[in-house]
């Protein structure tokens, strides 16, 4: 007789434990659904901010542009690939006979008149090699439809014009 109340108490505890487990599992699933919903709305909000931050302030320069050098006849091309807001990765070249120029680096359009360049401009003119690796700028000097390199002094100490056309 004394064992019957003990058995009933154990059964009651076991059944309560199962109900409590089901309740806790359901509560955890509900919490996870709420967290997922919050994360989805935050991601949508962050994506809209990211899209606005990547939008150019100035015009889009993506694509191919003409590049010229005062000591190299003809022209070459330089390709602009957008990497961020008004930021581009650039690469291109000009060659004519033994004279050649290669440009690789990053350009940031800081105003409609100025492009800041960081990278390497490697040139060989009349058998003389010269590398420009310092940060420099290209400026629209209003003398034509191009930005002109502001570091104009070449290997021989003379002025050279390197132009990227609009």
Outline of the structure:
With 166 residues, the protein is α+β, with helices and mostly antiparallel strands. It has one helix at 3-54; strands at residues 63-69, 72-84, 87-96, 99-109, 114-125, 128-132, 136-139, 146-149, 162-165.
Question: Can you walk me through this structure?
Answer:
This protein is of the alpha+beta class and 166 residues long. It folds into 2 domains: 1-55; 63-165, Lipocalin (Beta Barrel). It is 31% helix and 42% strand. It has 1 helix and 9 strands, in the order H-E-E-E-E-E-E-E-E-E. It has one helix at 3-54; strands spanning 63-69, 72-84, 87-96, 99-109, 114-125, 128-132, 136-139, 146-149, 162-165. It has an 8-stranded antiparallel β-barrel. Strand 3 (87-96) and strand 4 form a beta hairpin. The radius of gyration is 33 Å and the shape is rod-shaped. The chain starts with a helix and ends with a strand.
SSE map:
Elements: H1 3-54, E1 63-69, E2 72-84, E3 87-96, E4 99-109, E5 114-125, E6 128-132, E7 136-139, E8 146-149, E9 162-165
Antiparallel strand pairs: 1-2, 1-9, 2-3, 3-4, 4-5, 5-6, 5-7, 7-8, 8-9
From the structure above, extract its key features.
about 170 residues, alpha+beta, Lipocalin, 2 domains, eight-stranded antiparallel β-barrel, 9 strands, about 30% helix
Could you name the CATH topology of the largest domain? Lipocalin
User: How many structural domains?
Assistant: 2
Structural class: alpha+beta
User: How many strand segments?
Assistant: 9
Cα(first) to Cα(last) distance is 100 Å
Assign a percent range to the helix content. Answer: 25-40%
| Spans where pLDDT lies below 50 across 5 or more residues | none
CATH architecture of the largest domain: Beta Barrel
Task: Tell me the Rg in angstroms.
Answer: 33 Å
- Output the helix-strand order: HEEEEEEEEE
Number of helices: 1
* Shape designation: rod-shaped
Give the strand line-up of the largest sheet.
Answer: 1-2-3-4-5-7-8-9
Largest sheet: 8 strands, antiparallel, barrel
Assigned CATH class of the largest domain = Mainly Beta
> What percentage of amino acids are in beta strands?
35-45%
Mean pLDDT, all residues: 87
């Amino acid at each position: 007789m004394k064992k019957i109340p003990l058995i009933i108490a154990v059964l009651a505890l076991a059944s309560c434990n199962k109900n409590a487990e089901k309740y806790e599992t359901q509560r955890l699933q509900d919490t996870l659904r709420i967290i997922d919903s919050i994360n989805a709305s935050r991601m949508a909000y962050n994506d809209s901010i990211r899209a606005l931050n990547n939008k150019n302030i100035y015009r889009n320069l993506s694509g191919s542009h003409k590049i010229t050098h005062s000591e190299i006849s003809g022209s070459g091309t330089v390709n602009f690939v957008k990497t961020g807001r008004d930021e581009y990765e650039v690469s291109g070249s000009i060659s004519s006979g033994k004279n050649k120029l290669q440009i690789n680096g990053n350009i940031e359009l800081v105003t409609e008149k100025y492009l800041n360049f960081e990278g390497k401009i490697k040139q060989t003119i009349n058998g003389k090699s010269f590398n420009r690796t310092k940060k420099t700028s290209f400026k629209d000097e209003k003398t034509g439809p191009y930005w002109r390199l502001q570091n104009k002094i070449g290997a021989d100490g003379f002025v050279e014009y390197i132009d990227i056309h609009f």
